[in-house]
## 1
Amino acid sequence: MKFNLIFTFCFITSMIWLFNLMGIPFINALSNPPRHLNREWSLPPVKQGDWSETLRSFDVEEGEEAKSVAVLMYHRILADEDIETWHYDENGQLYDTIVHRQAFEEQIDYLAEQGYVTLNLKEFEQFINGALDVPEKSVLITFDDGFKDNYTVAYPILKRHDFFATIFLITGKVVSEDALYLSEEDIIAGADVFEYQSHTDRLHERTEADIPYLLTHDHREVESDVLISVNKLGGRKRAFAYPYGEYDQANLTVLNNVGVDLAFTVEYKKADQEVNRLEIPRIGVYPDDTIEEFILKLK
Ligand SMILES: [Zn+2]
């Protein structure tokens, strides 16, 4: 009897050991989803010499340098055939976060025809610090949340003109084979046009009372979330975008502690050298903007 017990114990122990050796987490497999679904991802750190680390020397004549730069904010770019009923709100209006592909194409073509330069974040930061003169026709293009259409729809349009843009990723939404958000593979494939920064890891939510999590969570929770996000981004912390553009004093302290250089809000105003580097205004581009309205946003 005693022998049988010892034998059974040894048998079970060795089976667990064997399964683990084969890469099958014996116990975990019973309670957790398959490994590939909850595998954490992270980007390799930015390499020296990457376009996002390179400052171009713009040939700017005395007095011709930009005094302010428009920072444009987009979310989703959708082709007409991909727009479905759930993309409209209860008043039958397309959600603010969606821009038609045709309109986006027209806007980007306009920037190219007019000779606009799309800054990278490093150049933009140097401009804000007064360390780099950039042309009057400079713009910073940003996308929030990290939707898949940024790669499938916006990327080829930007690429055609050798334009750059920044995507603020909700890093907790990045999983493989997701239909709505960018996957790790999309992120890597788009890295010659897009640079990636944080839009939180899991705090891009609102409470039942409609208050953004960044305003209701303890500063330690916010800091830990931002650190997780930055870590997944391979240490990228040149910029951060506040979910819904809302923030408080405690958030500014957290970003300072983490060492984030620039943080972006939403406000119809161009960014100049007077702005607080953690409260940089961005101008939203919306579904019913005409090209004339878009042009006004650049002025
Ligand atoms: Zn967002």
Note: The chain has two domains: 2-32, 50-298.
## 2
Amino acid sequence: MLKRKARCFEPEYIEPIFPLRVRILAALPGGIARLKKMVPPPNGDAAPDISRFIPLKEGVTPEGVAYIQSCMLVDSDLAKNLYVPIMRQNRSLALQQGMCKQTIDAGIDIINRCADNTLSVEEMVDAGLITCNHTVALRLKSGRLLLYDPQRITHTMKAWIERLGGEVAYIVSPNPAHCLFTQSAMQAFPRAKLVASQQAADKMADLGISTAYNYSNPDRLNALWQDLVDEGVIPNVLAGDPAQIILLYHEKTRTLLEADLSYRDAFAPPKGLITPLMKRKVEIADTTFSKAWRACVCEVSPNRCSPVYRFASFNEKSILCQLAKPHPEYVVDREAMKISLGLLLKLPINRVLSAHQGEIDPQRWADAVLAEFAWL
Ligand SMILES: [Fe+2]
């Protein structure tokens, strides 16, 4: 596995150009910790609920794993601090690669307006400034439930979980970026134990929520492993990966749960019905923004398919890497991640449930992962 070689590159050359104040602060002693503290606590509930435009959609895999699809608007802070600078920075490169100037400029304009909070909810939905997410409810051997990547706890979502039956025993925030609704999930199911990365645990601590299993800590990951193995679930955190994703393997159904490992279908259209309120752009993947995002964020990267910030996060000297690392001593290690991924791909997998893409055929998923990480 992972034998294909991408063209040679040095990740050092791809550091997003952050605003000057961020670069100055990052260079000061203790600046990275201060930058991390400046990020506001995650609160997905503050963003508008768009389920009236795109209703929640329940699903069950052929192996019997239940999940529910919901969509949310692109976060304006993420747009301002990551998408806008990267898209501006890579505009010329994308043009050199033959991308249409009109599409790129229109895409950058729309993400700029998202960053400035000048778009209405309908305009954002129409422009495809949404991501689809899948909350998975894994049935444990004890009959209890584990929620992987819970999204907004609407009445529909709560009723779906209650209909499934069984106590919610674990709530899993699958990576540092996926904790917008962790607080509300913990409030809805206060007896659940929280599983989260160091960064998500820090954010939750600021909100008064304690994390039972901080999986960035090897001892706590081991404790989680021991508790979940008895429940038929194997946790997996890729060694050396700055993205700190926890993947879960459900033995009985041979299902792998993942969040943000593969980005092949980022901003893919939601599956299922879209209400008449969302009048024009139903094919989210074909929106101008989505095309421009792929051109300026993915197609300019060395393998032409992974987000360029995924490469920058492997450069220990970059601000992005230092912000992504769970703690300053954490060692980002491409070789360790390559070995770890190879072992993951050897698991007998019947189905992959991806946070953004939903159900994926395991071969299609493995092909995507190989294409995106052959450079390791
Ligand atoms: Fe994500």
Note: Confidence is low (pLDDT under 50) at residues 1-8, 279-283.
